[in-house]
Amino acid sequence: MPGLPFNPDTDISDLSGKVIFITGGTAGLGAESTVQLAKHAPARIYISGRNAKSAESVIKQVADTGSTTEVSFIECDLASLASVKTAAENLLARESRLDILMCNAGIMARPQGLTQDGYEVQFGTNHLGHALLIQKLLPLLQQTAQAGADVRMVILSSDAWRLHPCGGISLDDLKTTQDWAFGAWRRYSQSKLANLVYARELARRYPDITTVSIHPGVVRTGLVENLDRANRWFVYATTFTQMVMPEEGAYNQLWAATVSKDRLQNGQYYEPLGVLTDKLDATAKDDKLAQKLWDWTQEALRGF
Fold first, then answer.
1. DSSP states along 233-267
2. What's the pTM value of the predicted model, to 2 decimals?
3. Which residues are known to be catalytic?
4. Which of the pair, 165 or 233, is modelled with greater confidence?
5. Is 296's pLDDT higher than 90?
6. What are this entry's molecular-function GO terms (predicted)?
């Protein structure tokens, strides 16, 4: 992988006392991040997802490394705002600090559909579910930062944001399935642009928390393997020489979560590995779009 050299065994410093929450921590990049972070002795790691059996497997992997870090599963379906609310409340009832929130979970190039709350399924899962989780956990994150801790939010985006529709994010019809040409990928790209833009707006509004978005690279995880044949072929045909395994694919988010704070620029987007991108287009840098997305998100989450 190009960019900075990185070895999680030697380049992640001691994490003693830290509390970490990883969405989608039961498989793929989230599971790999959990195992690697647990080697450095954080107090507790919480992993969310929909599959308790997969969570048990990750918890066993951590134990097998000899780590004494407590790893706990919190059930959370990002496509259900009620589920996200319950998950956040579960964590808040158990913790008095939160040092690292890694928004790792996501879906990719899915057929048309809606979340349980009636939003386009990729946007509702990748952006809106995470946004509610963030909003619920922000007071705890701020409390931890104000006590002097180095608090991070790492939000997984993707270089696929570049395929976003004209205007960036089609906010007016997100309660439809958005029947577009090449729609599965454009809807995915729209959600990944939202991840990038929302991270920048969070950094602007909450400067005491270091918030960055990252591209993990092209990684051979379930996101790719679970695609239909045509979309899986498209990914392999266009990115075969760039594809890496989950162990290496998790490096960029691990780097962003643990590198010395002075090596990060708050609100920015990093490509693998640790490379501050200079490739954002005008839409990705549009502060008016960030404000519109913020306002739309706040309204969508009203009542939760």
1. HHHHHHHGGG-B-HHHHTHHHHHHHHS-GGG--TT
2. 0.93
3. 157, 188, 192
4. 165
5. yes
6. oxidoreductase activity
